[in-house]
Known about the structure:
The protein is α/β, with parallel strands linked by helices. It has 2 domains: 1-82 and 159-243, P-loop containing nucleotide triphosphate hydrolases (Rossmann fold, 3-Layer(aba) Sandwich), CATH 3.40.50.300; 93-157. The chain has 9 helices and 10 strands. It has helices at residues 47-55, 76-80, 98-108, 113-126, 142-154, 172-185, 198-204, 222-226, 232-239, and strands at residues 7-18, 21-32, 36-40, 62-67, 70-71, 83-86, 160-164, 190-194, 207-212, 215-220. It has a 6-stranded mixed beta sheet, sandwiched between helices. A 4-stranded antiparallel beta sheet has the order 2-1-4-5. The longest helix is centred in the middle third of the chain and has 14 residues, at 113-126. The radius of gyration is 18 Å and the shape is globular.
Amino acid sequence: xxxxxxxxxxxxxxxKYYGEFxxxxxxxxxxxxxxxxxxxxxxxxxxxxxMKILTGFLNPSKGQALIGGFDVHENRIxxxxxxxxxxxxxPLYLDMSPKALLRHVxxxxxxxxxxxxxxxxYVAVRCDLTHVWGKPTGKLSRGYRQRxxxxxxxxHDPKVLILDExxxxxxxxxxxxxxxxxKSLGETKTVILSTHILQEVEAVCSRVILIxxxxxxxxxxxxxxxxPTHDMEGRFRQLTRVR
Length: 243
């Protein structure tokens, strides 16, 4: 049974070793409900490793990951019910239409047919998929495939969203729509998103966690990332220089 906790996402001293190499080292943070948090870092910093541990795709070498109070390693299924996960370049069944694919996902999750119908209607509109609803996913652009992935993450109405590059491949209009969606979802859900687009952080997020060489380099507000000169890119480079 989960322990009562005001935090929806907790990383407690997470480390992941591959031989002597530490992909992440003692990563610790916690995120309450109703927050949209950016998880930043250069390529190879440990972002995807941390996200995979939070979602249960990887086990940590040390530490604990908790979702809604459930230890992800010990209570994998209970934690998974609370999570909507959008991996970067997530796999899709390309011969299936978005509607058929998402219906299949709902059935695999054990959702009732009436609830699947309700949620299909919701995600088709919120992810702007109605006019490609019956087309083979393999015939869709990268941007539309990304929206199908987002719909899959939202389908079961999870309390926690873990999103890896959610606007990758989208055109400016689609990026705007996804950002507005994330802001509205953040009113009731806990959202952690990995992105390389610093303007996205400023537009959507209230907090920034920056990881470099497997360790937390900054955990603060968006203003903290900009520093006194409000130069987010300069501050990012400063914090992610190789030590």
